[in-house]
Amino acid sequence: MATTSTASARPQTEPADEFLWLEEIHGEQPMEWVREQNRHTDTLLDGPDLEYMTERVLDVMDSPSRIPAVTKHGPYYYNFWRDAQHPRGLWRRTTWESWLSDDPEWDVLLDIDHLARTESVEWVFSGAHLLRPQYTDGQWRRALVRLSPDGGDAVRTREFDLETREFVTGGFDVPTAKSSVSWMDADTVFVATDTGPGSMTESSYPRQVRRVSRGQEVRDAPVIFEVPVNHAQAAVYKDHTPGFERVIAVDLVDFFTVRTHVRSGEQWVELDLDPTVSVDLHKQWLLMRPRHTLELNGTQYPAGCLLAADVAAFMRGDHSVQPVFTPDAHTSLEGWSWTRDHLILNTLHDVSSALYSAVPGAWELTALPGIPPLHSASAWAVDNEDPEVGNDYFFSVTGFLTPSSLGRGSLPDLSGHGADADDDAAAAREASEPTILKRAPSFFDAQGLEVTQHFAVSADGTKVPYFRVGPRELELDGLNPTLLSGYGGFEVSRTPGYSGATGISWLTRRDDRGRTGVYVVANIRGGGEYGPSWHTAALKENRHRAYEDFAAVAEDLHRRGVCTAPKLACAGGSNGGLLVGNMLTTYPELFGAISCGVPLLDMRRYTKLSAGASWIAEYGDPDQPEQWEYIRTFSPYHLLSEVMSYPPTLIWTATSDDRVGPVQARKMAAKMIDQGHQNIWFHEATDGGHAGAADNRQAAALHARSHQFMWQMLSGRKGR
């Protein structure tokens, strides 16, 4: 459980924070400091090279040849699309037959640019939740549309009519806040939002859920579920699956601990299960993925496995389970999806994808074909409730040098089979390779480039995989401009993926020697590449392992002759910003440039800033003296030294980031400048939220600025 304590527990000898004034996010003095730093950074980077690169990256992001990814609801396929003519985007839909064509006919439901002009708010589309047709005479007619005024996590949720293409007059409308809103039925929604004092957790998320009837003010609606203020968040939603309708409440105790409750009459019944086990309720099945070794009925099941049980029996106390997936030293489970008659598993084998299907009850895994090595693939159900295509699945594959493709396949219809699980399993083996329907274009010339996988040895002897993308005939003389990227947190895996922007701004760019860039992705501990154990190995007091892993990859690149320190840059955002912040302060001799985005850096105060308290389970609680003793060892803000020599560093953030917030980036840059370091630059966008960009042009500018900085520094231009 996440815990908090009073500030009096802190060591009294700790020096005062001279830059607390920068924590006033919209204050006049802090914003003037931001504007001054932005001007300074613009002076360094602005010019024909940056402008050219920004426009080329924007061409990629705005390309009409991108694959329009869709989700199916009823007869229509929905898509959200941004391009040069619609920078804020279009929410639209089409038919399957039209989508298959080279030029689909799109029915525009909501033009966000037009809405922004009409309402004088720079809206950013954050998704929509459609009401099931059983509540509206069989028609998909209503949706709850989420709109952010600045790209942050706080959104306004409004009821929208899909037939009239208008917001419903007098309909559900929840004001801008960090909130969740979901349908119970046509005239009732579950709302978790800020309703005043006592309604939010210390993590800045809702702690109360109310059942709101049409026409009722949220504040007047009854609270049906709430969690303690030091938990992370509360939410309630309804499973609308016909024949299996149920209302579910979740108490997110911390980032990795969730207590799941099912409504029974007027009572909540909690699942009798270790709350660190991830659960999924689907029809009669309960799926469980434990983060740690789990013992049930005297049998131990390893972390990262997948178990299945009958929901009703489990809630009656029968904890009999069937293993669905068991990991080994090389494999992990990334996720799953249900078709009508099958379960699809997305797995990794040494960070390359492998896909499987299984028939519920038999649970025998059958490989889905069509995945090349050193690539990433995923498969998911098209619409598991559609009577005609309930066993269809979408399939995507991508690689560092392979543009994304999207296909569609179908698993066998088992509705005509009996209850014999062996017959069902045999039928499942009839699955055929899906048909590729659309391919994204190539945005850079990959001829002569290759992808290889290597393993570095970390400080404790652990082998850490990494991907290297670069010339096939790479000269191993240490002179190749190299960009090392990583994340290492929250069980997030870094898998192969095509980026036209990175191809243009790094892989095909040439330096004065005619060398093109080398791009490296490190799969360090803290991520999920090898399942929960790979993540938990770098939690809290073991956080140093993630940084040792990343440093080991950097050293391996040096040892192999790919680059030397002056030719190696590293980049990371959010938790990845904390990662490269620790490279800056602890391993500065390994790098020639660092790009640190929307970062955590002040680990003393991170729990007091934005949503920081929700991450105590990842990093620890700095208000507990014994935990602060290890946290301070990876708090870059506190590791800074006036006498150290640091590589050129760009620290960038966004004023509207309400997840990590901009203040840690501000304070880090200000402290380094105050200490006299001459190679520190800072840039803060005014909107865009935690992504740092609210539209494609802002995203292109952010990408180009970061890469231009690193390329420029590796080419030898330094100094403030």
Automatic annotation (TrEMBL):
Start and end residues of each Peptidase S9A N-terminal domain: 10-405
InterPro entries membership: AB_hydrolase_fold (IPR029058), Pept_S9A_N (IPR023302), Peptidase_S9_cat (IPR001375), Peptidase_S9A (IPR002470), Prolyl_oligopep/macrocyclase (IPR051167)
Gene3D superfamilies per the UniProt record, alphabetical: alpha/beta hydrolase, Prolyl oligopeptidase, N-terminal domain
Pfam families attached to this UniProt entry: Peptidase_S9 (PF00326), Peptidase_S9_N (PF02897)
Keywords noted in UniProt: Hydrolase, Protease, Serine protease
Region span, Disordered: 411-431
Every Peptidase S9 prolyl oligopeptidase catalytic domain range: 516-715
Listed name of the protein: Prolyl oligopeptidase family serine peptidase
Lineage, highest ranks first: Bacteria, Bacillati, Actinomycetota, Actinomycetes, Micrococcales
